[in-house]
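Chain A, query sequence.
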Amino acid sequence: MIVAGLDIGASVTKGVLVNENKVWALSEVQASDSVASAVGCLGRLLSNSKIKIKDLSQVALTGSISKDLKLDMIELSYKIVDEINAIGIGGLYLSGKKEAIVASIGTGTAIVHAKLEGKKYYVEHLGGTGIGGGTMVGLGKLLLNKDKATTILKRARSGDVSRVNLLVQDIVGGPIGRIPANATASNFGKVGDDTRPQDVALGLVIMISEIIVTLTYFAAKQKSLENDIVFVGRLPSQDLFSDRLSQTLETLGGRCVIPLNALYATAIGAAKAII
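Chain A, predicted structure.
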């Protein structure tokens, strides 16, 4: 049984084809609206995998789905899967874990507790934050006149954190307890005349990652799952951002997994939810 999973945004849809054992195809399509991107993504999935539409048993939809969304033109049975459930299921499937805290970093960040018992998934929404990719784009526009996350991340690679953040070593001269000397004492607390745009970009990346990690870590601590954290979404798929996630979490005393195809976790979770 092959199932399509579509994670539908306002103008971008991420899609997958999966069965009980593996992921067959992955695709991402941007269009003028959610319906166009969803139908286009499904068509690309079928084309790339050489699978005919009659071979699909069903389509799972999740994401930013309005009540009046109709995909009747695809002539297939489809089900709407709650996005929180899709995040949890997708995170567990990609990480290979039976239980974990899954943080999905999109425009904002959602944090869930997911558990697999036998063949049944249990997902609990723990909370989240408005900090995420949208924050990077918005502040990037204000501070750098750049409104693409990829551009901001590229510029951040040549940044120097010591020119923008006040570090622990600036205050106490070295490490303190478990906190290393180069840990952040104050985000943007050292901005001065010598701070360059690339330093600001790096400071932005660090601030966003640190906020998300801190919230996720303490959510995980409530469930005694500090060593079983899974990050999924677009930003964790970028190596500079993923490195900051891992480093900050290790400082706090936790561990994380950022699985392959983390960008498609919610689409995969939606598909797995109806298999």
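The longest strand covers residues 120-129. The helical segments are 34-49, 83-95, 133-144, 149-156, 168-172, 197-222, 239-252, 265-273.
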